[in-house]
Structures are given as C-alpha cells and as structure tokens.
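Supplementary Methods. Inverse-folding protocol.

Structures were first reduced to a discrete structure-token string of length 375. This string, shown here, constituted the complete conditioning input.
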C-alpha cells in the first residue's frame, strides 16, 4: 500500500509595522514646552522644537516625512532663512546628525521635511529630534517664531504606519534679539590664574561696546558678579580674564559675558560648574634617618632615609624633579653601597618599592643627584 503524499503550504509574512504578529508602537513625546522660550540672535542657528520617538515591538518602522507648523511675526527669508531636522540616540544636539537637507523657510504655516532617506526605527529604539532655525544676520529685533500646535501623529509619515501614542507639547516662543553665548572654559582653575573666555555675539553692537567676563559666586549666582576681564569689540571673540587671588575655594562657579552697548546679558559658560582652588605650593619637608642595623646582603634593598614632603593647595599639582644627597658615615662608600635608589609612596603608606623615582646611582660616594619626575 502506498502512503499518500503530504503537502504543506508555507506563508511568508512581510515584516512591517502593521504585522499583526509583532505590532509596532511608537510613542511621540516632548518636554513642556518642547523647547523653552528664549531670545535668539541674528546670525545664529537655534533649536525651535524638540521631540522624542520611542519604538517598541519586533519590527522596523521607516520614518519618511516630518511636518510642523510655525506661527509668529517673523518673515522669511528676511528673519528666518532655513529649517533643519536633526536626530540622535543621545540627548544632546551637539552630537546629532542632520536628517535630509536644509528646508527653505516660508512664512508662518506648515513646513515639511520631505527630502530625506527613510530613517529606520528599529525595535526598542529611542531617537531624539530637534528642529533648528537659521536666523538671518539682518533679522528684525522683536519678531517671533513659535512651533505650535504640538507635532502630532498626523505630522509624521511612515513607510508602514505604526500605532502611535502621543504626549508632546508646543514649543516656547523664540524672540529675535541680541544674544551672547559664552563658550567652554578651562576647569579646574587656580586662584590668580588667567583663563580664556570665548563668546559668540549675535546681533549688532555699536562702536565702543565693551564685552565683560563676569564670575559668579561659588553657588553659581550672579547677584553680585566679579569682573574678571574685558575687551572692546563689536563681534565675537575671546576675553583673557584673571581669577582674583582672593576668590574662595568652590566647585559651583560660572562665567558669563555681558555687553555695554546695547546692554545684553549672555549665557553662562557652556561646560557648566567650574572648580576654583588654591594653587599647590611647597610647605615643608622632614627628613628622618632609619635607625638600626641594615642587612649587608647585596641582594636586599635597605631603607635608610625617609623624606616627608608637605604641600598646600590642590590646583596645578607640583612635581619633584631632583633630590641631592651626600654619603657620610662610611669609610668606603663605593664598597659599602652598590646602588642608591629613591622610591615614593602616599602619605599613609610605609616603605614600598612599587614606585621608583628616577634611576639608580651606582656606587654613590660623596655628593650625588637623582633626577626624575614624581607625577
């Protein structure tokens, strides 16, 4: 008897966000407001909206278009020239990648990023997005731009639409005006030391304008700022400032730049809290002779002298580079001492040979020097 043949039908399912076996959900969210209200300077590129997409599921969705609505009194291109769309798996726009090409701005209304390669949203992936605006160098002070209403699911186009959950908000109003952005500064800084304070000035500053670098108190407050440097200029640049020697030690200092004509208060330094402390200085040293007999076995290392070096302050650590010694008490040093070495340890440690200073001096006799660097 012949057994009947069995036939199987195989079904291949397309991987898409609409896959019933692995449905994809994307959550659209933002801060409230999506970006804070701010003053934006002529000639600057500034964020006007930010949102986050968080995808869950086991399939990949492709984002193909983003639209948003602007309102305000701005005109294009006189005030706003272009918009850009950025994305990153991180939380900082500084490390974001531009998605697509620049979008030529139009007046208040719908703006659409439609010319970019589809952005794949893999499973369980979070991307942060920013929309930036390029402010024209000759923009009119006082005009505004706002992204409102908030971006919704209808503003996003997908190759295959996921299930959307929306919890985002409109952006804050951006007002065109004079701005000064203070750059990064050295950290930590010693009392009495000089520091370069870079700044970017947006807008028009009149002849004779003075940019002033100000230091906050140790808590970051500018209620009673200290002037640490000035420069007469009308454009972006760098102020060579000096930290006063009497500044209290602290870890919460900030530096900002202000201008005189017009009077504009800039942002604080972009790298956040600064530590200011006392420069390290040599205080004293104590020398003690190790007492007792030493082993004459040439294979052994014998500790015969201890030098305790005391310093004050912690800023710009010092490095010892040389020790001067003199052999006494031996009738024949070249015969009695085969090598002289210097080792160093932390204050609370006893003698150890784990960290050697410089190189050994063979058969020292009389005055001799050991050079090195103690980090």
């Amino acid at each position: 008897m012949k057994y009947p043949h069995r036939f199987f039908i195989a079904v291949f399912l397309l991987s898409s966000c609409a896959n019933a076996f692995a449905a994809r959900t994307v959550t659209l969210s933002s801060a409230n407001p999506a970006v804070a209200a701010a003053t934006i300077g002529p000639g600057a590129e500034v964020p006007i909206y930010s949102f986050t997409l968080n995808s869950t599921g086991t399939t990949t969705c492709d984002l193909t278009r983003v639209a948003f609505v602007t309102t305000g009194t701005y005109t294009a291109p006189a005030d706003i020239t272009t918009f850009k769309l950025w994305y990153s798996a991180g939380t900082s726009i500084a490390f974001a990648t531009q998605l697509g090409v620049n979008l030529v701005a139009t007046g208040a209304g719908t703006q659409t990023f439609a010319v970019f390669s589809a952005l794949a949203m893999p499973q369980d992936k979070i991307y942060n997005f920013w929309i930036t605006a390029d402010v024209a160098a000759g923009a009119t002070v006082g005009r505004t731009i706002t992204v409102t209403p908030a971006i919704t699911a209808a503003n996003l186009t997908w190759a295959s639409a996921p299930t959307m959950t929306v919890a985002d908000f409109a952006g804050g109003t951006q007002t065109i005006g004079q701005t000064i952005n203070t750059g990064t500064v050295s950290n930590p800084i010693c009392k009495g030391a000089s520091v370069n304070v870079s700044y970017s000035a947006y807008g028009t500053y009149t002849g004779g304008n003075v940019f002033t670098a100000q230091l906050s108190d140790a808590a970051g407050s500018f209620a009673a700022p200290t002037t640490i440097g000035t420069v007469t200029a009308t454009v972006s640049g760098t102020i060579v400032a000096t930290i006063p020697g009497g500044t209290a030690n602290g870890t919460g200092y900030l530096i900002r730049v202000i201008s005189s004509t017009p009077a504009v208060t800039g942002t604080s330094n972009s790298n956040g809290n600064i530590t200011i402390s006392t420069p390290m200085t040599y205080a004293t040293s104590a020398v003690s002779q190790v007492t007792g007999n030493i082993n004459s076995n040439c294979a052994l290392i014998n500790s015969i002298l201890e030098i305790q070096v005391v310093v004050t302050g912690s800023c710009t650590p010092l490095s010892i580079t040389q020790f001067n010694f003199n052999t006494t008490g031996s009738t024949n040093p070249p015969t009695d001492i085969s090598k002289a070495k210097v080792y160093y340890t932390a204050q609370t440690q006893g003698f150890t040979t784990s960290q050697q200073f410089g190189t050994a001096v063979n058969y020292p006799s009389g005055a001799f020097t050991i050079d090195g660097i103690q980090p």
